[in-house]
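We emphasize that the prediction below concerns an isolated chain of 244 residues; any contacts that depend on oligomerization or on bound cofactors are therefore not represented. The input was used exactly as deposited, without trimming of termini.
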Amino acid sequence: MAKVKYKTIKERFRALRAELDTIEKDYTQDMLSKQIYIQKPQISELENGKRLPSINELKAYSRFFNVPMEYLLGESDSRYYKNMMASKDLGLSDEVVNALKLWIEKSPKCNIVFVLNQIFKIGYGYSFLNALSHYFYGECSGLFVSEGFSLYSDDKIQAIGNDGIKSIIINKNDIEYIFQQKLYDLLKEIKQELKTKKLECKSELYNGFDTNACLSEFYKNLDETISDKDFAKYLSKIRSYENG
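Result of the prediction step, given as a token string:
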């Protein structure tokens, strides 16, 4: 089997046509050819990733499917012109942009964008993003410096302190816990600072606004409820913290 030269071209051009399939029948290359005035062999080449599209082909597909040329070429993951700027500047997908827009619409005074703006307003923005990044990617980011110690993320950690060099053993679960605790402590500190400066988010988010119902427009299988099993587990942890 011949190697696909342009995989993204193949996937996106083929997927666009497939979106026009119905229960009764598939939308064929012949049918598309008659609609966009591009010959079937050309469509076949694009859907098999054999070459890049010409400017005329890009224009035809862009007009017919109402998608940006950048999306067709794989330069952007955004299928909608109105989301192009956010996608280009921040690298956000359409799914994320649409979810944020809906959240802001349903809860203008208390949403993740509002909270993030407030966090930066009180001077914790970069610390928050840094802690969040460490939490998700800490064990594979290499080097972290904290309170005079440099922690090399590996099964065998070298802790370089003021009194010289010593080796300690920290497994990956411990590393994960370190950054989990760091993030949790920072969130508590941020929340207290927001409260002190009267910038905290009120209860609007859960007052007349069903988060699950809102986001389910984009995440049909979303279920953010806490199961009885998880609740018992979290409660047990809380009790152990209180007693320890």
